Known about the structure:
Elements (H helix, E strand, L loop, with lengths): L14 E10 L2 E10 L7 H7 L6 E13 L2 E8 L1 E3 L5 E3 L1 E2 L4 E2 L2 E9 L3 E10 L7 E14 L2 E11 L5
Antiparallel strand pairs: 1-2, 2-3, 3-4, 4-9, 5-6, 7-8, 9-10, 10-11, 11-12
Amino acid sequence: MIYRSAEDSLNVYFRNSFGFNLAYRDFGFGMKFISELPKYSNQQTELMQELDPNRLALGWKELYANYRKDAFSLHAGTTAETFGQGLSFRSYEDIEFDADHRIESILVKYDEVLQIKAFYGAIESENYSARYDLAYGADAQYPVYQGLRLGASALGFSRSGGL
């Protein structure tokens, strides 16, 4: 058996998850159970408090529900989506770099010849803990010719104010 020292643990970040999705006819639902320790500090003097096993975070996260009927789709919950062409808004998760930029939102889509997406959602504020910034927008595209689309996008972002 090998015991690791606190110094060895600087290169380790614990995260484990279990997710599931359920679908019935036009409805869907999903969630993920996540267990993780906070990211460790690189300063040895701050390390011992970070390694406390009582800091293990557990919880059901990444909840979503959706409804799809023909070309219409409604999604509520954790959302990963791209809006716009060229200058765009992208909501995504990059597991390799441990970066989660997804939003909690309501997303409406219509995907026939005319493609329309609209969303309204919340992003954790970078400036204030336990507060959210708002993001909202719409995107429409119409095929003019083979390989050519005409489109328009409108996006907005509202930062939460401090106390």
